[in-house]
């Protein structure tokens, strides 16, 4: 132990006193269904569970951020991948809450399903205090997801055409293996290398695992990544066709779409020619 | 239309006219942007992965992060009044940003806060427009060929790098500025900020690789002040 | 330092010294070059290289998995139940930095003061013929725990814990491998080796460290009649439900860990390797369910039951036919049964939490009187099974992840003595055939208070300033005169892991 150092002592005390004040000056709430989250309660949870990665100031610069190859979310920038809202807008409280429930399969962010519903609502309220954007901007208008169109072979084939026409393959590869011509050049908004999703090896997506989630992913885009929004480009009735086709690319995941596709000669040939390698998100590959 | 309305309209016109006559002065700041040192050599872009664009460029185009001209001049430098001039409402014209031959035209687009931004795709391939805003909201939209222009605007002043993730060589800049006193240096490095009323101004020059430089300039009346900015070029 | 007899000036001094030392240490911590979590971003120049294994692997602070280490939070419990996996694709070791070393050391250095009111001492009547009050105090250190664990592959986890006493003599406290999420279901996980029983209140994660309260009294209580019975206890029967046992465990849990069960089959009840005594199998079963109650937090209730058998003599004695306690390893027979059952409730009320447990236990009359069931030894007249009940109330106030206040009360009440009871028959002396126990003989109360302060929270290392006082009072068990036996223990120190 070192000798007592008066200035250090004062700093120590000042930080202890000032830290709660800095944060408690920003109070907020979240609303998820019937739940109301309280930022004050969320703050205590944040400084128990989250700050090691997301940082003391919520800037994604926690003491372990340097070891992570998918960087922790920066709550000060308030750019979020998994949303139900248009690109460039803030997500809804429900979107953030859902991310806490689900976690991110390919990153170090675990599922927080073991916390209580109230805990998660409180955390959502608190992380919204890090960026002034939550005061000036409202969450975007939720992109409506219409009832799922019937699954038919025509629907899958139309989705296949869209996959070509919209040039999804430029990044995701002609067979959806995440190996398109631009795949190796991609970086996220922090200039970190990022891989496009490899459908062939995956069953879950970054923002969920259902058809509904998949619909939202390409309509909203994943802000902060190269994945753009197709909301202005794809008509809602076409979007389900694309969903159905994308499911057939997940040859390791049993889905009704894949089963139907395999009943056609064309589908069978395509699926049996599919090669599977790597992980869904190419994680573990230092690029 | 009632007499009252006519009166109001006339008054409005009068106010508008007097504002416009009082607003712009007759002072001008002009000059030239140059560099010293050795800038990075422009690299030739391989567009072979995008044949529809490659065939538009019989001679391969080069990167535009630093565009130099004769006499060490620097093009594509945004010069603007960063202090001393009041914020101005946006003009009614739109700022146009085209994607043609897998290139951004112009490479640097300067426009005002609140001004309509119109992004078009003239190519036969899909682009995604991904302005990496930090102060404004970051968004990322796909724009396949034949789709209507994307219309947007920005609420805050910011230098925003723009990229297309599908075509990694495509880089550009949105210079969102608070007033109309700006200029993007031409191929010979020259710029001109006309119509300045008398006052003390801070002039900022921004180059996407080299950052920004500032100078304070005092405009007394209808004079033309000539200033120059010399950027230190980095060879990488 | 030992003193006998009445309270002396030295003893008074001894009682003051710890509090002075505690004060000095507390002040020292404040002045030491240790930064609270709050200061980390500003003063992040220093980097500690030794890192608690899981915290570093996942980049999370200790406080994520530990309400206050070593005690787990519900999130940490789920991580453990899932085979030390988060359930994302960062779990398998291949994704880790090659330099990652899954090892954590834990040690404690401290000052402690121990007092026993009636220790067996030499007296005029000979060796160990008298009782005396003694106090010992001074600086000391704990054994070293050498934790290493993680996943060998996806859904194959392991844990090995060589642990030493404070002389450095090592034993294996925990050694197991576990197949996780069999058939893709979190309801099936199979563990094999030596491990802690799936106690909801884990003794290995106890927050108190003194000689009196370093273990849960209820987890180890055995009727005093068996330790010094007519024949002396068989060495294999020193059972504590808090001890690690050797066997196989099937456990399962819901995805959110609200529902948990485990069923174990164990081939020993003393956790020793090499089959030294037993040829029986014991069973342990536990099930619990948690509920969310609004903004209060998770509330959990559960049940557990251990049903076991312990041998009372060796089939083949080892050169001393008349000594039932020495025999050929693995040949213990004359099995007699015992059980430990209980209910547990864990209640969270925001920053306050309470664990309440009720125990009901019994040992067969042979075990409870230390008698070999070999047909030669004779049970004491009127011998019967010992039955007792216990209660435990432990509460914590977690002011924040850095400060936790701890309080615990444990009560043990005999409901049936193994030997016949005559009310008010006076002091009972074990081994004496002329006295009989009173109905409250062996009843025990243990009180504990303390706090742990973690001056910094990180994912690199753990450090706690620990202060604790514990007091135990047991009726009629003083060794010579059969009067009440009291222990007290005070500990002030540093508990650290890296």
Lay out the secondary structure.
The complex is a heterotrimer of chains A (287), B (236) and C (498).
Chain A: H1 6-24, E1 29-32, E2 35-38, H2 39-49, H3 51-54, H4 93-102, H5 117-127, H6 133-136, H7 153-165, H8 169-172, H9 211-220, H10 236-249, H11 256-262, H12 265-273
Antiparallel strand pairs in A: 1-2
Helix pairs in contact in A: 2-5, 4-5, 7-10, 9-10, 10-11
Chain B: H1 3-22, E1 27-36, H2 51-54, E2 67-69, E3 73-75, E4 78-83, E5 95-100, E6 103-105, E7 108-112, E8 117-121, E9 127-131, E10 141-143, E11 150-152, E12 158-163, E13 171-177, E14 182-184, E15 190-196, E16 199-207, E17 211-219, E18 224-232
Parallel strand pairs in B: 1-18, 5-8, 7-13
Antiparallel strand pairs in B: 1-15, 2-3, 4-14, 4-16, 5-6, 8-11, 9-10, 9-12, 12-13, 16-17
Chain C: H1 9-31, H2 53-58, H3 62-65, E1 66-68, E2 71-72, H4 74-81, E3 103-123, E4 126-141, E5 145-153, E6 156-164, E7 170-179, E8 189-196, H5 217-220, H6 224-227, E9 244-253, E10 259-266, E11 282-293, E12 297-310, E13 313-314, E14 332-333, E15 336-349, E16 352-363, H7 365-369, E17 386-400, E18 403-416, E19 444-453, E20 462-474, E21 485-497
Antiparallel strand pairs in C: 1-2, 3-4, 3-5, 3-21, 5-6, 6-7, 7-8, 8-9, 9-10, 10-11, 11-12, 12-15, 13-14, 15-16, 16-17, 17-18, 18-19, 19-20, 20-21
Here the CATH topology of chain B equals Immunoglobulin-like
- The backbone outline of chain C, from C-alpha atoms, is globular
Q: Could you name the CATH class of chain C? A: Mainly Beta
The fold-level CATH name of chain C is Porin
What's the helix count of chain C? 7
Largest sheet of chain C: 16 strands, antiparallel, barrel
Strand percent estimate of chain C: 35-45%
Q: Biggest interface: chains and residue counts? A: A-C, 51 and 48 residues
The helix-strand sequence of chain B is HEHEEEEEEEEEEEEEEEEE
* Share of residues in helices of chain B: 10-25%
Shape of chain B: globular
- The spatial strand order of the largest sheet of chain C comes to 3-5-6-7-8-9-10-11-12-15-16-17-18-19-20-21
What string gives the helices and strands of chain C in order?
HHHEEHEEEEEEHHEEEEEEEEHEEEEE
Derived from helix and strand composition plus strand pairing, the structural class of chain C reads: mainly beta
CATH class category label of chain B: Mainly Beta
């Amino acid at each position: 132990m070192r000798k007592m150092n008066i200035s250090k002592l004062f700093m120590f005390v000042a930080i202890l006193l000032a830290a709660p004040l800095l944060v408690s000056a920003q109070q907020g709430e979240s609303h998820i269904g019937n739940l109301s989250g309280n930022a004050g309660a969320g703050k205590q949870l944040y400084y128990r569970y989250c700050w090691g990665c997301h940082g003391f100031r919520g800037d994604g610069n926690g003491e372990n951020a340097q070891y992570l190859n998918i960087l922790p979310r920066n709550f000060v920038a308030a750019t979020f991948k998994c949303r139900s809202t248009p690109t460039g807008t803030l997500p809804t409280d429900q979107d953030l809450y859902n991310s806490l429930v689900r976690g991110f399969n390919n990153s170090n962010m675990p599922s927080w399903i073991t916390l209580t519903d109230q805990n998660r609502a409180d955390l959502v309220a608190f992380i919204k205090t890090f960026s002034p954007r939550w005061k000036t901007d409202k969450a975007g208008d939720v992109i409506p997801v219409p009832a799922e169109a019937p699954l038919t072979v025509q629907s899958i084939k139309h989705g296949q055409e869209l996959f070509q026409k919209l040039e999804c393959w430029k990044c995701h590869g002609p067979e959806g293996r995440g190996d398109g011509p631009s795949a190796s050049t991609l970086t996220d908004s922090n200039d970190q290398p990022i891989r496009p999703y490899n459908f062939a090896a995956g069953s879950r997506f970054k923002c969920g695992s259902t058809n509904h989630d998949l619909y939202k992913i390409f309509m909203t885009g994943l802000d902060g990544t190269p994945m753009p929004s197709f909301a202005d480009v794809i008509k809602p009735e076409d979007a389900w066709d694309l969903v159905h086709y994308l499911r057939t690319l997940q040859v390791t995941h049993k889905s009704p779409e894949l089963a139907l596709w395999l009943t056609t000669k064309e589908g069978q040939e395509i699926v049996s020619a599919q090669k599977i390698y790597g992980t869904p998100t190419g994680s573990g590959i230092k690029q | 239309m009632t007499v009252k309305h006519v009166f109001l309209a006339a008054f409005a016109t009068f106010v508008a006219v007097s504002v416009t006559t009082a607003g712009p002065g007759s002072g001008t700041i002009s000059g030239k942007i140059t560099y010293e040192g050795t800038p990075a050599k422009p690299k030739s872009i391989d567009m072979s992965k995008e044949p529809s664009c490659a065939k538009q460029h019989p001679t391969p185009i080069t990167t535009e992060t630093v565009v130099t001209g004769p006499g060490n001049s620097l093009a594509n430098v945004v010069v603007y009044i960063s202090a001393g001039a009041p914020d101005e409402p946006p003009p009614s014209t739109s700022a146009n940003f085209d994607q043609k031959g897998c290139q951004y035209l112009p490479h640097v687009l300067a426009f005002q806060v609140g001004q309509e931004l119109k992004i078009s795709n003239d190519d036969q391939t899909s682009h995604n427009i991904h302005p990496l805003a930090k102060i404004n909201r970051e968004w990322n939209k796909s724009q396949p060929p034949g789709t209507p222009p994307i219309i947007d605007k920005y609420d805050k002043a910011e230098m925003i790098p723009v990229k297309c993730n599908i075509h990694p060589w495509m880089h550009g800049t949105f210079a969102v500025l608070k007033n109309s006193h700006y200029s993007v240096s031409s191929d010979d490095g020259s710029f001109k900020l006309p119509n300045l009323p008398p006052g003390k101004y801070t002039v900022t020059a921004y180059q996407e690789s080299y950052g920004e430089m500032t100078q304070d300039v005092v405009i007394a009346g209808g004079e033309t002040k000539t200033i120059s900015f010399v950027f230190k070029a980095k060879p990488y | 330092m030992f003193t006998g007899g009445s309270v002396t000036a030295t003893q008074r001094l001894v009682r003051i010294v710890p509090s002075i030392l505690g004060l000095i240490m507390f002040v020292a911590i404040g002045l030491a070059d240790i930064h609270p979590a709050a200061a980390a971003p500003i003063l992040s120049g220093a980097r500690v290289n030794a890192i608690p294994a899981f915290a570093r692997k996942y980049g999370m602070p200790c406080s994520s998995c530990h309400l206050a280490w070593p005690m787990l939070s519900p999130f940490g419990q789920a991580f453990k139940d899932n085979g030390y996996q988060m359930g994302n694709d960062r779990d398998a070791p291949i994704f880790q930095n090659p330099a990652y070393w899954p090892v954590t050391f834990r040690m404690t250095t401290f000052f402690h003061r121990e007092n026993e009111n009636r220790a067996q001492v030499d007296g005029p009547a000979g060796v160990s013929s008298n009782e005396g009050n003694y106090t010992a105090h001074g600086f000391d250190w704990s054994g070293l725990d050498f934790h290493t664990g993680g996943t060998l592959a996806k859904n194959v986890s392991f844990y090995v814990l060589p642990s030493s006493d404070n002389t450095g003599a090592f034993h294996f406290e925990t050694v197991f491998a576990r197949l996780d999420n069999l058939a893709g279901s979190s309801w099936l996980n199979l563990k094999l080796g030596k491990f802690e029983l799936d106690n909801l209140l884990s003794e290995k994660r106890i927050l108190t460290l003194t000689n009196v309260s370093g273990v849960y009294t209820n987890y180890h209580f055995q009727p005093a009649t068996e330790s010094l019975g007519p024949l002396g206890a068989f060495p294999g029967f020193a059972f504590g439900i808090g001890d690690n046992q050797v066997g196989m465990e099937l456990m399962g849990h819901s995805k959110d860990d609200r529902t948990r069960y485990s069923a174990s089959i164990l081939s020993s009840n003393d956790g020793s390797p090499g089959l030294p005594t037993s040829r029986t199998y014991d069973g342990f079963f536990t099930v619990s369910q948690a509920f969310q109650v609004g903004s209060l937090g998770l509330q959990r209730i559960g049940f557990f039951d251990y049903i076991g058998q312990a041998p009372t003599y060796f089939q083949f004695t080892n050169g001393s036919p008349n000594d039932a306690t020495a025999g050929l390893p693995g040949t213990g027979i004359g099995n007699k049964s015992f059980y430990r059952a209980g209910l547990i409730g864990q209640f969270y009320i925001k920053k306050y939490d309470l664990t309440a447990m009720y125990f009901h236990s019994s040992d067969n009359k042979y075990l409870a009187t230390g008698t070999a069931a070999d047909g030669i030894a004779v049970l004491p007249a009127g011998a019967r099974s010992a039955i007792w009940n216990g209660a435990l109330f432990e509460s914590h106030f977690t002011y924040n992840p850095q400060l936790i206040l701890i309080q615990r009360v444990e009560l043990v009440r005999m409901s049936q003595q193994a030997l016949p009871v005559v009310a008010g028959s006076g002091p009972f002396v074990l081994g004496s055939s002329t006295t009989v126990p009173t109905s409250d003989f062996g009843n025990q109360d243990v009180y504990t208070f303390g706090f742990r302060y973690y001056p910094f929270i990180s994912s690199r290392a753990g450090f706690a300033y620990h202060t604790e006082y514990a007091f135990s009072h047991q009726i009629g068990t003083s060794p010579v005169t059969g009067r009440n036996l009291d222990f007290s223990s005070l500990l002030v120190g540093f508990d650290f892991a890296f």
